[in-house]
Amino acid sequence: MQTEQKEGMELIRKNFPGLDKVKSEQFEQLFPLYSDWNSKINVISRKDIGNLYLHHVLHSLAIARFMQFAPGSVVMDLGSGGGFPGIPLAIMFPETQFHLVDSIGKKTLVITEVAKALDLQNVRSAWARAEACRGPYDFIVCRAVSSIDEIMKWTAGKISKKQRNKIPNGLILLKGSEAVAEIPKNNKKFELHAIDKWYDEDWFKTKKLVYVKA
Length: 214
Fold this sequence. Notes:
Blueprint: H1 3-15, H2 21-40, H3 52-60, H4 62-66, E1 74-78, H5 86-92, E2 97-102, H6 105-117, E3 123-127, E4 139-143, H7 148-154, E5 170-175, H8 179-182, E6 190-194, E7 208-213
Helix pairs in contact: 1-2, 1-3
């Protein structure tokens, strides 16, 4: 096992102890899969592939620290790129359906092939813009796609009114420190969470999770 893969899996097991064998094996496969695809299609910065688990997988799984998706939930990953946060979340929540959407076709090809290699039956991908996806979805998740205002415009009317989770349906966004300025003051629909309350790795000190109740 390559050093990056071994150290990455130690990070995953440290922050998510008790993973079953299937999930552990799927997370282990992420490094060789993305290393191979990244050599063909640049879905992750080539300088950053060694940080796959810290910067991409663990970051995506901050959403799993925020909430546990109920079985049968339907989640859109908007602007998924090569599959983040959708692929790690699909591994973690095999009974939740994930629709990974990106406007760049070669990136959705990577999503499709990675999901196939991992035998993720709960993932489908779409080469499309958010406006073309009807939904409805219980949650829409995304990572560093655009401003909160823009994301809200693109996803208007796509959140299901049927509630099946403990947390009301809405948007879950992974952002940087810019999120503080993007959230309207005194608006109870918005919640801002510092990701470093869940992880003690230094890289997460400026990372935020924003929840927007639909």
